[in-house]
Design goal:
249 residues, alpha+beta, Umud Fragment, subunit A, seven-stranded antiparallel β-sheet, four-stranded antiparallel β-sheet, 3 helices
């Protein structure tokens, strides 16, 4: 079950704001005759919570939104249990709930780590790396990535058993990727990115449900750019203090 926090927060903010407005322009005139105790309580709570709800709504909608990494598809860059900040204004300011863009502030670049809404279920958020921009031709074959006919540079960093960690440079952005089994048959192909869409892949290339499977992501489904880790806690384990504050490459 997916809870639409943006909708709940917007409704609560609107409700408490409406109660305050009604009190100012209507209920205040009737106060001398007395108001029901339940109404007085609702007005008092609304006065207390409205500023807090409005502040949280504005920050979450237009500045930063927290997000928890639910899987290992972005390893080794992001681990399951990482809590990150998503910069909401990187790719435009959007109204909460309806997600309509009202101000253009920028577009994704090669190598950005982006949170987006899944086209088949917009209530589900995914996080992947931008591999292809509109008009790009992406090829993934034999665990090697090519963008517009140019192989993306990478070099081996470490090898443990069958797994390999490589340093990849995409769009001037250096980051790590993981190949869990070089002999494993994976989804390969050549993909042309449509206008207004972006091709996304996970850094854990053998274990990521990304644009190879779900298709390119429409610009309208972008949530924001993942910028920094603020906590790591997986289950009942102690937090990994060393990951706090880490910038996402």
């Amino acid at each position: 079950m997916n809870i639409n926090l943006a909708l709940i927060l917007t409704l609560l903010t609107a409700f408490t704001g409406a109660v305050i407005a009604l009190d100012k322009f209507y209920f205040s005139r009737r106060r001398e005759n007395g108001l029901p105790q339940s109404l007085e309580i609702a007005i008092e709570y609304s006065r207390s919570f409205f500023p807090v709800l409005l502040f949280v709504l504005l920050i979450r909608s237009f500045v930063f939104e927290p997000f928890r990494i639910p899987s290992g598809s972005m390893m080794p860059t992001l681990l399951q249990g990482d809590f990150i900040f998503v910069k909401k204004y990187s790719y435009g300011l959007r109204l909460p709930v309806i997600e309509k863009k009202i101000i253009e502030t920028g577009q994704p670049k090669h190598g950005d780590v982006v949170v987006f809404r899944l086209p088949s279920d917009p209530n589900v958020n995914y996080i992947k790396r931008v591999i292809g921009l509109p008009g790009d031709v992406i090829e993934y074959s034999n665990h090697r990535l090519t963008v517009n006919g140019v192989p993306v540079p990478h070099q081996l960093k470490e090898s443990v058993s069958a797994s390999r960690v490589l340093t990849e440079t995409l769009g001037g952005r250096e980051h790590e990727i993981m190949i869990t089994d070089p002999q494993r048959k994976i989804m390969e192909g050549i993909y042309r990115v449509e206008e207004g869409h972006f091709f996304m892949m996970g850094d854990n290339r053998d274990n990521s449900r990304d644009s190879r499977y779900i298709g390119s992501i429409p610009e309208t489904h972008l949530v924001g750019e993942a910028v920094r880790i603020w906590m790591h806690m997986d289950g009942l384990e102690w937090p990994d203090w060393g990951r706090i504050g880490t910038k996402i490459q």
